[in-house]
Amino acid sequence: MFREGSFYKELLKRFANDEVSGFSAQLSYFFLLSLFPFLIFLITLIGYLPISQVDVLGVIKQFAPDETIQMIDRILDQIIDKKNGGLLSFGIIATLWSASNGMNAIVKALNRAYGVDESRPFLVARGMAILLTIAMVFVIVVALLLPVFGREIGLFIFANFGFSEQFLSVWNTFRWLVSGIILLLVFTAIYFFAPNKHLHLKDVLPGSIAATAGWIVVSSAFSYYVGNFANYSAHYGSIGGVIVLMIWLYLSGMIIILGGELNGLLYKRKDVY
């Protein structure tokens, strides 16, 4: 068995050698490029679905700082026409292109975590990135729908079976846990399919669980910090919300890559021991 101290030292060494900070910055850039086309796509799509702009922002608000939510809300109010089919098409194309670029960056970072080169043909690698992006978009849409349908299901059970109001409270907590489960599935799919390495499900679960927990904790802590201690708008004016958003996306990218580094280190240790 390996010593815990040496494990963390090696993980820290990987952080520097594998340029985790640089890849995180690259990811935050692509995340920013894809965020608003994706939100445009979602807000346009909800004209055909039983969810609202408030529902979409409500899911993001669970993790994102308030300044970021306010900025996103203002921008969406300015540019969204829910009945514009051309805007929906633009959102789909722009989201797939920019988000698949971000997925390519994740592929490179995960390949480095496992110490392998990308040997797959360009079209295969790019196609996989686009398919993973489509899967992520689909999962996120489902994640948005589940709380809405979950609320209606809870109200139906409450009204027809005579449960107490405490049931509704427990039910609401349970249905929001679905967001964490879906996030875990997304990370698991990325860590399983993205690297140019044949892996088993058990090889990627530690990083998926760590990334899910880490992302929720870091996002919540950063949101609390921004809301209670830091006033970026006072220091940076109107771009304060953009700066907060970029820092949040940077931290999110770092969590994703660190989850892959954890899997890569555990995989290496497994072969050694």
Automatic annotation (TrEMBL):
Domain of life: Bacteria
Regions crossing the membrane: 29-51, 87-107, 127-146, 176-193, 205-226, 238-260
Membrane topology recorded in Swiss-Prot or TrEMBL: Multi-pass membrane protein
Pfam families found in the cross-reference section: Virul_fac_BrkB
Intracellular or extracellular location(s): Cell membrane
UniProt keywords, alphabetically: Cell membrane, Membrane, Transmembrane, Transmembrane helix
Name by which UniProt lists this protein: YihY/virulence factor BrkB family protein
